[in-house]
Amino acid sequence: MSYSQVFLYIYLMNISDRLYLSVFHKLKQYKPKRAARWAHLYVSLFQIGLCLVLGVFFTKFAKQMKLNVLDDTSLWIVSIGVVGFILFKNWMSYNGKKRAVLLSKSIKRSKTHALMVLILIPLALFALAFILFKAA
What we know:
The chain is mainly alpha-helical. 79% of the residues lie in helices and 0% in strands. It has six helices and no strands.
């Protein structure tokens, strides 16, 4: 594999795949049997946090613009549906062929994120969602 192919593959992967590989390679050193499960959980938490931030932002925006799109009950049902969809999507994609392709094409010494950054990303997303929820 040439350098340009490696460069394009690493930088054209989406952020969820990069985070999955980073968590998987970090945890594989300590807990090799549970690394895939924890990486799947991490990516799911990241995507749920991202959807939560966007949902809170658009909900607050709609309330300030006096748009009545969803009531509270419908919003909770939609949120639970989105969480279920994210968990199912990640379960299907990171347990099947995509995971095997990601792991086979990833380079062992590729750029991984620091452990502290990996811990702070979901915490920052949930903190941002809480701050947006309390604002205005």
